[in-house]
Design brief:
Largest sheet: 8 strands, mixed
Strand content: 15-25%
Shape: elongated
Radius of gyration: 28 Å
Helix content: 25-40%
CATH architecture of the largest domain: 2-Layer Sandwich
Number of strands: 16
Structural class: alpha+beta
Number of helices: 16
Bound molecules: histidyl-adenosine monophosphate
């Protein structure tokens, strides 16, 4: 029969890979919970309209990359391409604002975008993110950027750099938009067909286009910073002062716009010098999106957040993502009632927090030792009838082949000592 394979761009996580996932996920939970973030879990399927309204109709994600369909009941649904719109939908739906003045949520979840698969770019990928809802102050911007960067450096990531920019509030952004339209209008014949369309739908996106001619034309485009309002400028300067104070590595990237329409004021990306990501792309992206809560039916609420791609982080971490293994203890019984004794010992070791494996099939000691070796066991516990009568077992160190008799009462402590 023909073998079936997973969908293109969607991957199983198998074998030793899972250890790296656990490491980055566990470290992430621990890290952000220290800052007061709590987990939120939302459905994988959402109404299509959530992303059209939230991310913006004229974005690549919504125009080209979303998995959307009409279900059998005639509802238009989409597999979520990102977590922010879903989190804010949940925030509004559950009237969280009525319960607390500020909300800190994090998530670790699969996302779906029908992009061209490549190294570090998948159609199902996983994001870990954080959203801080209800705080307008630039201290929130600085803290959340610093939280993301310190998480990555705790994991051992080298060469972290933050690209930082501000799009300004609605007024500054409107001025920027107008300036871009008048700049690109005279040069539209040199823009790609997508960007010619973007000129009327979403001119900021032109700055994000990867087509060589568009990059060339955009080089002379006006920068948004000269058009910022005093408030927007003060916000950005205060944020920068805090990052400077903490030594958080960043550089201002005035032409960065990001690919989602909900952003206002601060936007940022984390990039890492790494060959593992190939043609690269950011590992993390985020920013302020002060209008989204209102656009999704809530009261105007300032908000900031980020998300990073777990696959990309793991690619860059490479070997550093693999946590050191704790000992695996293989337990085997010999003589009458051996199997039963082996399971008794393994239960007791697991109860003491140790990793223990038992042979389900019986066999000679020689074959059991071979099996232990295959499992990668560092110690083998041999539960023989004679030793059992004295309340003892034999303990074999697989690296040296040495054996010693150990009392059952002291076994867990003896093994823990040699971890
Ligand atoms: P984003 O920049 O679209 O932002 O995605 C964030 C991160 O997700 C990227 O930096 C990348 O690491 C990862 N990512 C995106 N697409 C793919 C893909 N096809 N394959 C692998 N990894 C991918 C957002 O999604 C915003 N919701 C972030 C945010 C949260 N802004 C405010 N709050």
């Amino acid at each position: 029969m023909k073998m079936l394979r997973s969908v293109k761009g969607m991957h199983d996580i198998v074998d030793d890979e899972i250890a790296g996932w656990h490491k980055v996920e566990d470290a992430y939970r621990q890290h952000v919970e220290r800052y007061g973030y709590r987990e939120v879990r939302t459905p994988v399927l959402e109404p299509l309209e959530l992303f059209v309204r939230g991310i913006g109709e004229a974005t690549d994600i919504v125009e080209k990359e979303m998995y959307s369909f009409e279900d059998k009941g005639g509802d238009f649904l989409a597999l979520r391409p990102e977590g922010t719109a879903s989190a804010i939908r949940a925030y509004v739906q559950h009237s969280i604002a009525a319960k607390e003045g500020q909300t800190k949520w994090y998530y670790i979840a699969p996302m779906f975008r029908r992009e061209r698969p490549a190294k570090g770019r998948y159609r199902q990928f996983h994001q870990a993110g954080a959203e801080l809802i209800g705080v307008a102050e630039p201290t929130a911007d600085a803290e959340i950027i610093d939280m993301a960067v310190s998480y990555m450096s705790h994991l051992g990531l080298k060469g972290i750099g933050v690209k930082l920019n501000t799009l300004g509030g609605p007024e500054s952004r409107g001025r920027f938009r107008e300036a871009l339209v008048s700049f690109f209008q005279g040069r539209s014949d040199r823009l790609c067909t997508d960007c010619q369309r973007r000129l009327s739908t979403n001119p900021l996106r032109i700055l994000d286009c990867k087509a060589p001619t568009c990059i060339e034309v955009a080089q002379g485009a006006p920068g948004g910073h000269e058009l910022l309002s005093q408030d927007d400028r003060t916000h950005f300067d205060s944020l920068r002062r805090l990052l400077d104070r903490w030594g958080t590595p960043y550089e201002v990237a005035p032409s960065m716009v990001r690919g989602l329409d909900y952003y206002t004021r601060t936007i940022f990306e984390v990039q890492v010098d790494s060959e593992a990501l190939g043609t690269k792309g950011a590992i993390l992206g985020g920013g302020r999106y002060d209008n989204l809560v209102a656009e999704l039916g809530g009261k105007p609420t300032p908000t900031i957040g980020y998300a990073f791609g777990i696959e990309r982080l793991l690619l860059v971490l490479g070997e550093a993502a693999v946590p050191p293994q704790t000992h695996l203890i293989f337990v085997t019984g010999v003589g009458d009632g051996g199997a039963q004794r082996a399971f008794d010992v393994a239960r007791s070791l697991r109860g003491n927090g140790l990793r223990a494996e038992v042979a389900y099939v019986e066999g000679s000691l020689r074959s059991q030792l071979k099996r232990a070796d295959k499992f990668g066991a560092t110690f083998v516990v041999i539960a023989g009838a004679e030793e059992a009568a004295r309340g003892c077992v034999m303990l074999r160190d697989m690296s040296t082949g040495e054996q010693e008799e150990v009392s059952m009462d002291g076994l867990a402590a003896r093994l823990r000592e040699s971890q």
